[in-house]
Amino acid sequence: MVGGGEHSVTLDAGTGSSRQPGRLPTLARMPRGGTLDVLLVATRRFEFHAFLARSLAAVGASVGAVAPPGSPLFRTGAVTTRFAVRGGRRVGGMERALADTHPTVVVPCDDGATAALHALDERSDDWRELLRRSIGARQYFPVARSRNSMVALARAEGIAVPATVTADTAAGALEAAGSVGWPAVLKCDGGWGGSGVRVVEDASDIQQVWPRLAGRPSLPVALRRSLRSGDLDALRERAAFHPAPLGVQAFVAGPLLTHAVCCQEGEVRAGASVEVLARLYPTGPATLVRPVARPDVQEAVSKLVRILEISGVVGFDFIVDPASDRALLLEMNPRATPISALSLPGGDVAAALASMCGVATAPRPALEGTIALFPGEVMRPGGDPGAADHHLVPWDEPDLVEAGLRMHVGRRGAGRIGSALRRSSGVTGR
Ligand SMILES: Nc1ncnc2c1ncn2[C@@H]1O[C@H](COP(=O)(O)OP(=O)(O)O)[C@@H](O)[C@H]1O
Ligand SMILES: [Mg+2]
User: Fold this and answer.
1) 21, 158, 255, 345: which sits with the fewest CB atoms below 10 Å from its CB?
2) Are 264 and 353 in contact (CB under 8 A)?
3) To test the ligand 1 pocket, which listed residue (111, 197, 277, 326) has its Cβ within 8 A of the most ligand atoms?
4) Could you tell me the residue range of the domain that residue 196 belongs to?
């Protein structure tokens, strides 16, 4: 599982910098905040959150975090101001963090964080300016949160998407699958890592999948999810459930591309694409990627960012139609994604965000070739991170390394795999 290799590097490939507010012309409309440049908001414990914090710190930004206890964000020295907040008090906790730190921008790092920022915007006018420059124009928040609305809007704007029809019932989905072609992909609005998406091969698949995607989650399922995440989010979502149509989409057999951007009020400041070479499970998070330059992706993203007046850090997923080699938009993730932590030949999203905040950043070297993401590629059955040109292990923060492994294999497994990984990478010390 853990391959040997001489290619390992640490994630911290950045160079230091000093703050020189107001030096860059693009900063003219970006009011400086108080004590923090960037406040990261998380409701889940994803490793990449810490990597984004490290990248921001590496380019000179001061970084704070609002996250659940045990978050990887609290295991990196890159985060200097920390607010541990459990689900139920998230919006209140966020308000306190914002009032204490007055960040220049706030960045949601998962879908729950985006929803919490949208809720904050609805609850109070106090943060409107901050939220506008951090995530964009509020009239588009509902579109940003709905995969199916986003695809419909993109199509209306002439952006290439897979053939998609919406359906209110299983019978409607069957008819829709007939029109887009089999196999089809059924999609609800929520979910991530493939949880709201199912490939269906025939009518009986649709009968089976429909209640799971279109229905109210059962109480035992919601309870189990809440127990696992340590908050009441899944139970709350169940209580607030209202039926919505599903998208029925043509299945596209080509490779997945993901694109991360940093934008400012509808304008892309930096963005880069990667092709996904391997994933933790078939529809799950990418574990091995390679930078690619795709003008069609850049054009589609710039158009959507402009139309939706997006600000801040967001990600887009595309799939390549093998027949035409065209990139088709699958979804927008209105939040930071793992790729946003990387400095790539196409651009450096973290550096662009820091620069938007008035930090005078020095350029970081771009990662070229294949990139194994940590800890995903270590954990992928058959994964071989040592074979990649880069394996992004944060060796200078051993707690972060161990916590990343422990999330997958428990304490003892983490120790064992961590030692093997260190040996194979030639890393000495703890
Ligand atoms: N039309 C499609 N054709 C083939 N695979 C798809 C299609 N739509 C989604 N998928 C697969 O499902 C995964 C998850 O879909 P996506 O819309 O990105 O939702 P999420 O990442 O939020 O779960 C994609 O990465 C892709 O592998
Ligand atoms: Mg996706």
Assistant:
1) 158
2) no
3) 197
4) 163-249
